[in-house]
């Protein structure tokens, strides 16, 4: 990792805290490793990304069924899929400093990357968060916080079939929390113990899996551009036979050049019929698909596009973070695409101590807020400080009400975040002007 990229990551983390995007979990008590709290702007950014994903992959399609499965599931779900017995990472502890590491993520398994001490013996560490359901704690009350959202959809496959009678191919989609007891959470929100996934289990006839795989490969690339992730920093990595999950016949990782290095952003896997077969065998429930036209019975195969929502937010922030000079002053700004920006428009009175300006600015603010929702009124500090503050949270447009607005009826000034250019726009044409720019 270069000094330049390290510095950029530190700057993003600092901006996120300073401007209310992301905070350390339980910070006033010293924090809790691998947990993060989203503040108002971070939550808005995350929701914008989530809404965009849901629109593209669910509501704009005719072959997708939304789900919201429970986080706690019968323990036999995780036994059937091998998570209880095999969902683990290699762990070793340094004999000198006592820190623990995933041995597949350190250069030398025998040497501590922090203090240089000798590493202890490697062992497998199961990442499931275990809990108990009900008043009695025994073997029958065990449950787990789900480590992925996928299985909640697979176990509801029969419910979707019975309720909707869909034709193949069709998919189930879900956005939700997942939990993994990571050995070494790292790189801000990139690897956390609690995170949010956006996943699709797309069920196909095995004869047609390649067609659907290529379809989602293209859709993922299009969505990356849509949310403002720098596609020049995205590359596809074909996972080799020896590195692929045992149930997958083909997997592509979409990798992104984060400030700390190139790492996985999204995954696209051909999971075959592994999950439905395992659940059918373990539960004793028939999960065969009947083609009502041909009367053919098959176990569908699955194409799984998997998206980390927290990683999406981090990639958007990394792509949007910019530094430049404007008007002879250095500035930091977030160059979000307008649809991702937590605040779309900010409205200012030129001076806060002039009631007539404040009143008019409030009037315009209410009109714009009805149209766009994510609009702020800001009269704190001088106009230059307000611009810098809005630049740092990525607001695309700032509207200023001045004396020409009141005395000459010459409309308002609309400032563009990226160029700093100011355009005079009439009051009557303001909503249409902003709508065109934002959309």
Automatic annotation (TrEMBL):
Keywords per UniProt: Aminoacyl-tRNA synthetase, ATP-binding, Cytoplasm, Ligase, Nucleotide-binding, Protein biosynthesis
EC number: 6.1.1.14
Residues annotated for substrate binding in this entry: 102, 148, 195-199, 304-308
PROSITE patterns reported for this sequence: AA_TRNA_LIGASE_II
Any GO BP annotation: diadenosine tetraphosphate biosynthetic process
InterPro entries: aa-tRNA-synt_IIb (IPR002314), aa-tRNA-synth_II (IPR006195), aa-tRNA-synth_II/BPL/LPL (IPR045864), Anticodon-bd (IPR004154), Anticodon-bd_dom_sf (IPR036621), Gly-tRNA_synthase/POLG2 (IPR027031), Gly_tRNA_ligase_bac (IPR022961), GlyRS-like_core (IPR033731)
GO CC, alphabetical: cytoplasm; extracellular exosome; microvesicle
Domain of life: Bacteria
Catalyses which reaction(s): tRNA(Gly) + glycine + ATP = glycyl-tRNA(Gly) + AMP + diphosphate
Signal sequence bounds: none
Domain Aminoacyl-transfer RNA synthetases class-II family profile: 10-338
Gene3D superfamilies on file: Anticodon-binding domain (3.40.50.800), Bira Bifunctional Protein, Domain 2 (3.30.930.10)
Ranges in a coiled coil: none
Subcellular location per the Swiss-Prot or TrEMBL entry: Cytoplasm
Gene Ontology molecular-function annotations: ATP binding; bis(5'-nucleosyl)-tetraphosphatase (asymmetrical) activity; glycine-tRNA ligase activity
Binding site for ATP: 180-182, 190-195, 264-265, 308-311
Task performed by this protein: Catalyzes the attachment of glycine to tRNA(Gly).
Assembly with partners or alone: Homodimer.
NCBIfam families documented for this protein: glyS_dimeric (TIGR00389), PRK04173.1 (NF003211)
UniProt family annotation: Belongs to the class-II aminoacyl-tRNA synthetase family.
Name assigned to this protein: Glycine--tRNA ligase
């Amino acid at each position: 990792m270069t000094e330049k990229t390290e510095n950029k990551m530190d700057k993003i983390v600092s901006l996120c805290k300073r401007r209310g995007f992301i905070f350390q979990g339980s910070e006033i008590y010293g924090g809790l490793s691998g947990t993060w709290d989203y503040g108002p702007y971070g939550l808005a950014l995350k929701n914008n990304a989530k809404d965009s994903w849901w629109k593209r992959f669910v509501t704009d399609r005719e072959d997708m069924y939304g789900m919201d499965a429970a986080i706690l599931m019968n323990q036999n779900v995780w036994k059937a899929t091998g998570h209880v017995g095999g969902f683990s990472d290699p762990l070793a502890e340094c004999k000198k400093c006592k820190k623990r590491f995933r041995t597949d993520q350190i250069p030398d398994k025998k040497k501590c990357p922090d203090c240089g001490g000798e590493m202890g013996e490697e062992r497998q560490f199961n990442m499931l968060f275990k809990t108990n359901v009900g008043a009695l704690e025994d073997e029958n009350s065990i449950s787990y916080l789900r480590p992925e959202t996928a299985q909640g959809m697979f176990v509801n496959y029969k419910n979707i079939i019975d309720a909707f009678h869909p034709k193949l191919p069709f998919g189930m989609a879900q956005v939700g929390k997942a939990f993994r007891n990571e050995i070494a959470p790292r790189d801000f929100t990139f690897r956390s113990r609690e995170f949010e996934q956006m996943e699709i289990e797309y069920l196909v006839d095995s004869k047609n899996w390649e067609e659907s795989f290529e379809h989602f490969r293209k859709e993922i690339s299009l969505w990356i551009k849509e949310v403002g992730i720098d596609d020049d920093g995205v590359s596809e990595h074909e996972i080799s036979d020896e590195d692929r999950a045992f149930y997958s016949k083909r997997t592509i990782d979409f990798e992104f050049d984060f400030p700390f290095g190139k790492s996985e952003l999204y995954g696209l896997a051909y999971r075959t019929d592994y999950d439905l077969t395992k659940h059918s065998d373990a539960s004793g429930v028939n999960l065969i698909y009947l083609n009502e036209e041909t009367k053919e019975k098959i176990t569908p195969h699955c194409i799984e596009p998997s998206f980390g929502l927290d990683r999406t937010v981090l990639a958007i922030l990394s792509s949007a973070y910019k530094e430049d000079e404007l008007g002879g002053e250095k500035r930091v700004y977030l160059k979000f695409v307008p649809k991702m920006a937590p605040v779309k428009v900010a409205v200012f009175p030129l001076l806060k101590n002039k009631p007539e300006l404040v009143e008019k600015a409030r009037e315009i603010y209410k009109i714009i807020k009805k149209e766009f929702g994510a609009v702020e009124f800001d009269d704190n500090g001088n106009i230059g400080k307000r611009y810098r503050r809005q630049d740092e949270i990525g607001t695309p447009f700032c509207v200023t009400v001045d004396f020409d607005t009141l005395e000459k009826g010459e409309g308002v000034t609309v400032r563009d975040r990226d160029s700093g250019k100011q355009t005079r726009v009439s009051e009557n044409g303001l909503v249409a002007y902003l709508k065109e720019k934002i959309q």
